[in-house]
What we know:
heterodimer, A: mainly alpha, two-stranded antiparallel ribbon, globular, B: mainly alpha, 2 strands
Amino acid sequence: MRVQFKSSYDDDINLFQDNRHRIQYGILILLAIAAPFVLPEYFVGELTQIAIWSLAGLGLMLLVGHTGQVSLGHAAFMAIGAFANIALMTRGWPFIPALIASAVITGVAGAVLARPLLRMTGIYLAIATLALSVIIEDIAIIAEPVTGGVSGVFAPIIELFGYEIDRYGTPTAFYYLCLGVLLLVTLMYANLLRSPTGRAFLAVRDSEVSARALGVNVANTKTLAFTLSCAITGLAGALYAHMVQVVNYESFLILISITLLLQVVIGGLGSMHGAFLGAMVVVLLPQVIATLRDLVNAHTPIALGNYPGMDMAAFALIILIMVIYEPRGLYGVWLKVRTWFQLFPLYRKGMFRRSRTYLKTERMR
Amino acid sequence: MDVLQLLVSGIANGCIYGLLALGFVLIYKASEAVNFAQGDMLMLGAFLGITFINTGYADMPFLLGLVCAALVLGVFGYLLERFVLRGIFGQPQFAMVILTIALGFLMRFFAGTVWGHNPMSLETPFTGQVLRAGGLIIPMVDAVIIGATVLLTTVLYFFFARTRLGVAMQASSQNQMAAYYMGIPVKRVNAIVWALAGVVAAIAGVLFAAKGAVEPSVGLLFGIKAFAAAVIGGLGSLPGALVGGLLVGIVEPFAGRYLPSGFGQVAPYVLMLAVLILRPGGLFAQVSQKKV
């Protein structure tokens, strides 16, 4: 086990702990950049999906994992980002300003909704945002000039620095575009977390009362978290629109909101890594299940293909097991495995156990 | 007349929402958890009712089938709490939300595998019959739903006010720790509350199936509307759940009739958001301050 000696406050909040840390992430980024040269085209598409869902997951993670505000309606904000981006681009805006504008529009929408929404806490907030997700489906039909009504709108081809980027025509270029946006947002996010604002988020998550006592303006902090979270989700929505190419009211069903939340949980609440791990599960699990299904069909008389909805059920089962046995998600599993190896003979089972609270707090706010 | 007619069908729908919301509130009161799978439990109850009652399946009389469905779902609710949900007792409220959402997915998959994805409806002795009162035509189904809701509410009221178990539930809902110290078996009470929620969901499901068609995915959207109902009433209040259910049930057909198309669907949620913004704890909230 390496012991890190911290000799100043900066050591605590540095972006990278040490050079080893720096090299690890450098290799990871290089691998992500090299991937399209090695992998077949199909997997590049999958990687693009992972990048986009990671981005959406980061947006939700900021709100749920780091500020402690449960949102079950983030597909609504993906929808706002997607429709805003397409609407601006079809009206002649170039891609980059349209992308930034869609993030800003979604952020503003989030900020407007945040004030009334954040008067609620816990369960009430979750259900209110759930309702938001239902409402947006109907708004997407009603607001026909922007959203194309029932039939939806086509995403125009992206023109960037003289190149035409198209999901199917030039998948590699689109992958790099998504990766670039993801890296920028990740960097911004990591920097945000080590700023006073980021630590205010964590304080609000852990205890609103003590955060207020420490001088944090709880309402403003929550609103800011909601705004930033929505802006990131809006970015993801805009990229998602370009990936699926046609979006209508059905593209952002309530199921997407729920999946997004489950993704964040399965990855590991309260860690940025969790958003990425969760995205990998969400995107790759259907592939794994399809492969398994083919295997089972080929070797046994049971025709698994006859049971629709298997992916969702398997996903749900994983979540079930995860929530009961590993509340910290996949990142928690990784943490435990790493610690086990670091401390090899000395690891104790109860090392990561958290104390439980049986008191009723939510109702007494 | 038109208005009265809408009102009757709205009230009948509202009763089902109210019953389902009652299930939410029961669970919320006892364990401060929200069961996001309650709508799917209604769906299971409806399918169980169809299995017990319809000709070609078990072919039971209506009331016997209803009781059987309620019993099966009650036992299911009990086992669910005993073997799945007890594992996360004491973890943040959020864990329960995720867990019950996942359970809902599994129930939907189970129902789709067992009963298929085609809509089914229940054969009842009163299907197609109508009551005439003046110029008003009331479908027998609606009358039965309203009657059943009134009956069930009365039974639940006396259960909570007069029986030992009911009082124990109230106590553990107000403060689990204190109830535990006073010798109330809080864990068992929780399991019984889940069983009770299962029974209520089964009854709501059978009534729902008597009125319309059931398919595996019906639970999700229906559940969300019942949430809206429970939240409008204030999650911790039993009468609030019924009032919220009736409000949602009544608002829906009226908005569909008198507002431009597309707004009718949204009306219950808009109503809920409006209530939440004005009174963040719902209409019947118990207001109390948190002390540090």
